[in-house]
Amino acid sequence: MGLAIARGLLRAQDPPAVVAVERDAARREVLRDVAGLTVTDVLAPTADDFVVVAVPPQDFDQLAAEHASSFDPAQPTMSVMAGITAAQVSQALGTVEVVRVIPNTPSEVFGGMSVYYTLPSASAVVAPAEALLLTIGKSLRVHREEQVDDATAICGGGPAFVSYVADAFCRFGEARGFSAFESRLMAAQVLSGSAALIAGSAKPPMQLCREVMTAGGTTERGIAVFEGAELSTTVSRALEASAARSRELAGALVGAPASD
């Protein structure tokens, strides 16, 4: 996720200076192939730096133990780690300027959707966080942190869930004689076009669905299969499971959840 954000920032019209801190030597070599990205193995932020913590949640305890002393008490810090609360990040790193964000991989192509929450004590971090997130897509600020866990399911996991459906479209196309390229083209355009229609219309998505369904027609037949398989319920269950896992991580990885 950190690399997706970095690539999005570096492709912006007026890209900022982006430094990636990576301890693994092999991974550093991969990162050095990213044009415009400065790569180091030393985490030494200055007071003017905006720090994005994008390590796996299970690695955060070690990062905090080794580098908390490097953080200024007012260090603007963004966490993109699933499950770990803003208060936990603040306590571990010693800074009150913490924003917790759930971005997603389309940030790399300026199509990101990020949901974020800031500690009540935070002020200086809000403007740079919003500026960063708007550079790589769209953002939504919430004032109840538990909504970030729900957004983890929709935004964080959403690209994977949508890609799962796209893969089914592609496999169907290839099974019917279309090439892999043709199948991918159709699937991607249908998904992006439908997303644009949903975003640009005031109609609820289900109304748009019904408008495509002619009585006795091909789409109605396909939707009937979805309904018979209770697809809507299955999708809801998948989102609930993903959100629940985000909440579990808060306690399982860094001790009992802290409150603000």
Detailed description of the structure:
With 260 residues, the chain is α/β, with parallel strands linked by helices. It folds into two domains: 2-156, 3-Layer(aba) Sandwich (Rossmann fold), CATH 3.40.50; 158-242, ProC C-terminal domain-like fold (Orthogonal Bundle), CATH 1.10.3730. Helices cover 52% and strands 12% of the residues. It has helices at residues 2-10, 25-31, 60-67, 86-93, 126-135, 146-156, 158-175, 180-200, 205-212, 218-228, 231-254, and strands spanning 18-21, 37-40, 51-53, 77-79, 98-102, 112-118, 137-141. The strands form two sheets. Strands 3-4-5-6-7 form a five-stranded mixed beta sheet, sandwiched between helices. Strands 1-2 form a two-stranded parallel ribbon. Helix 2 links the parallel strand 1 and strand 2. The longest helix is centred in the last third of the chain and has 24 residues, at 231-254. The relative contact order is 0.12.
Q: Tell me roughly what share of residues is in helical segments.
A: 40-55%
Under the CATH scheme, the architecture of the largest domain is 3-Layer(aba) Sandwich
Number of helices: 11
Order of helices and strands: HEHEEHEHEEHEHHHHHH
- The end-to-end distance, rounded to whole angstroms, is 26 Å
CATH class division of the largest domain: Alpha Beta
CATH superfamily grouping of the largest domain: NAD(P)-binding Rossmann-like Domain
Cross-sheet strand order for the largest sheet: 3-4-5-6-7
| Derived structural class | alpha/beta
Outline the low-pLDDT stretches.
254-260
Shape: globular
